[in-house]
Specification:
The protein is mostly helical. It has one domain: Tetratricopeptide repeat domain (Serine Threonine Protein Phosphatase 5, Tetratricopeptide repeat), CATH 1.25.40.10. It contains 7 helices and no strands.
Length: about 140
Amino acid sequence: MFDSAIEHYKEVVRIRREIFEIDNGAKPKLAVALNNLANAYYRKGLFDEAIKNYKETVKIYRELVEIDKKYMVQLTTSLVLLGIAFGSLNTEEDKLAAEKMLLEVKLMLEDSIVIGSPQYSLLIKLSKLLNSLVCEE
């Protein structure tokens, strides 16, 4: 099931990259495609691949937030998912990376754009999951 999703999203990412080379305005759609690919990798248990794609998604959303704050919710979501992926690896280094993501996410959850978004309650639940991964003994 996830193999076909991964192949599909890889193709979407490839196409979005080609479009992005021509049209810089396609950056948000590339970020969505990368995030979907990362989600499929995560669901399959391929955490390293998920992290690689979440990192690229976060990088793009950081650039987009510099231009337009409306991408703050997507950046926050991507950071939470990246932190969860790091937390799933269970190494001390990865736990520290997840903790860093959690600290940044907590600050973002105080942003008025994020608070006013329809995704806010989901982001709170995801951040609690991330917190549990970071704080488990």
